[in-house]
Amino acid sequence: MAMETQTETWRGEVGKAVHGVRKPYLLVFVFLAIITIIEVQIPSSGQSIGLQKAEQIVFLMATAVAKGSLVALYYMHLRYEPLVLRYVPLVPLGLVAILVLTLIA
Amino acid sequence: MADEHGLAPGEHAAGEAPHTSIWPFAIATASGITFAGVITYWPLLVVGLAAFVASLGGWILQDARGARFGDVVSRTEPGVFRHVSQRKLGMWIFLVSEIMFFSAIIGNALALRTRASFWPDPATDTPLNIPLTAVNTFILIASSFTMVQALKGIEHGSMARLRIYLLATLVLGATFVSIQLFEYNALLFGEHLTPWVNDIRPELGTFGTAFYMQTGFHGAHVTGGVLGLLYLNYKSWKKNWFSQSNHEAVELVGLYWHFVDIVWIFLFPIVYLI
After folding, report:
1. Quick one: how far is CA B270 from the chain centroid?
2. pTM value?
3. What ipTM score was computed for the predicted complex, to two decimals?
4. For chain A, counts of helices (H) and of strands (E)
5. If both were cysteines, with which of B64, B123, B152, B196 could A43 make a disulfide (CB 3.0 to 4.6 Å apart)?
6. Which of B107, B95, B98 lies closest to B213 in space, CA to CA?
7. How far is A52 from chain B (nearest CA, A)?
8. Is B74 helix (H, G, I), strand (E, B) or coil?
9. What does the pLDDT look like over B216-249, one tens digit per residue?
10. Euclidean distance between CA atoms B232 and B173, whole angstroms
11. Which of B102, B251, B155, B65 minimizes the C-alpha distance to A100?
């Protein structure tokens, strides 16, 4: 039946698969901290290292995407979730792009 | 087919109270009324906030009376999500709606920026305290690390690690909110950066609106997360609630907490550094 639900422990097949995998939580944290320190230097030192304003924006957005992806993949465990769940957060991105571009245009 | 608890599909665990509650629906309705009040008529805002607090109180009271929302058994939907618990799927769908919410907020601020006659440069004339906020950013990132360590602790059956790391996350989260309030105080009364019409520094009017809109909504979300962490701490320290096989609530609050961290990872450069 369409409305019928299955009953299983939440630590089902997925939870079992996750165990035994070494998760680099500390490494991710160190990376996030280092990148944040670099980001903070950009407004004051960006010009002196040859980064124009547009390049600074691109750099800061790229580091933000990298940091956010690491948190989502490792701290939110998307890296270890079924593929279908990894697509769920991607669903709104197209709508987000349309929304932001419409607002800016 | 029975699972490892001897339960057939659709059955409840022995002694398990029903998982349903009207209060989350009431909270969502109250939130809708509140937001409608923000953009239309302030008494509606007051009604929405009062309904929100009452609904939240109702949910807490229901929980205090022994309803077990976070029990061992969780259900999954048949089909493509059959390996994802309903609760986790629900949390992710909620987070998707939050992505849309913050995208609208940030998009609006970018639209204001492109049309503003003046926007302070972070390298020269910004009224914002970038070093202090960088420290606050580090605190929020550290809280994400302690949150995931708490989950790892209980996954390995360590109640002590769960408690210590949950407490650390709560302290770090509360510190983030406190520093933000300190920053707001300094900006409002020291730099005269206001979210409303700015008579003292009119050139900062549009920037102030965008700044408080973005950081304010994020701060409200962090405050909500701190309340969730307070709940988890109470359950783990006082009620000895969680175990190696029953800790989904920790994971779900963790998902929310990491999400507000990701939002800040984007807001910090957009608001403070660009």
Report:
1. 20
2. 0.86
3. 0.85
4. 5, 1
5. B123
6. B107
7. 11
8. strand
9. 999 999 999 999 999 999 999 987 788 888 888 9
10. 13
11. B102
